[in-house]
Amino acid sequence: MLKSVFIPIVFLGTCLYCDAQDNSGAIDKITDFPNKLFSVIDKKTKKLDEELDRQTEKYVRKLEKQEKRLKARLYKADSSKAAQLFAGDPEAQYEKLIQKIKNEGSSDVHSMGAEYLPYADSLNVSLAFLNKNYQLLGNSKMVPADIENTLAQVKQLQAKLLDADAIKAYIQQRKEQIKQYLSGEATMPPGTTGFLSNYNKQLYYYGQEIREYREMFNDPDKMLKKALEVLNKIPAFADFMKRNSFLAGLFTIPGNYGSPDALI
């Protein structure tokens, strides 16, 4: 746990230290900034967004069908007892989960989930910084609306990844409920023997899908690395990073963090 937290701290500290090295004065315009960055980010996040929607619906629908078959068999064996397991109308819950992730808007996100994603965090902060300081892009062909749209797309994907985590947690909870119910049966009703095995398999595969999307979202291409290299030369960006990154929200970072004096 300490190791996983230490690595992001080093990452953020390195960025801030690099900023502190170039503190000779304000930079009026950003030069060598990759203008295609926003379109590249839009394309990548939109693809991940659509894939996450598709895969979530795929796995949730499979689980929903499995529960329908289980329900029919358990009701046939003992309808009054089985009614307790399905009292919460799981079919309706599955449908709500699908609709939530498909209709998620670009709201503010205050968490990255169970795992900190350093480059995804840097991307989010960079877009927010440029959105507030558009004039730094100088003669760029981009307009403020382009940055706002890209930032909204990134936040939407972040929100959907959190929704996916919540869906996985619900499925895990539901699996435990079914497992507890079946373990109390003296004899397994016909056709239910392999249910938990299949259910657990779908849960595992969906968890793997979510992890892959997180890794792809957090995988920086050369263009993003170049953009961060340029932004790290601006002292104001270092201060913005300290105040607005997800990692900064987890720790109290000193005002002189990243400066040469702070390293003595």
Write a compact overview of the structure shown.
The chain has about 260 residues and is mostly helical. It has nine helices and no strands.
Describe the model:
- The chain has 264 residues and is mainly alpha-helical.
- 70% of the residues lie in helices and 0% in strands.
- The protein has nine helices and no strands.
- The protein has helices at residues 2-21, 37-85, 90-102, 118-132, 144-183, 195-217, 222-231, 235-244, 246-250.
- The protein is elongated and about 75 Å long.
- The chain starts with a helix and ends in a 14-residue tail after the last helix.
- The model is unreliable at 1-27 and 251-264 (pLDDT under 50).
Structural key phrases:
mainly alpha, disordered N terminus, 264 residues, 0% strand, disordered C terminus, single chain
Uncertain regions spanning at least 5 consecutive residues: 1-27, 251-264
N-C termini distance: 27 Å
- The mean pLDDT is 79
Structural class: mainly alpha
Rg over CA atoms: 24 Å
Reported for the largest beta sheet, the result is: none
Task: Specify the overall morphology.
Answer: elongated
Please indicate the percent range of residues in DSSP E strands (runs of 2 or more). under 5%
By DSSP, the count of extended strands is 0
Overall helicity? over 70%
Count of individual helical segments: 9
Q: Can you write the helix and strand succession as a string?
A: HHHHHHHHH
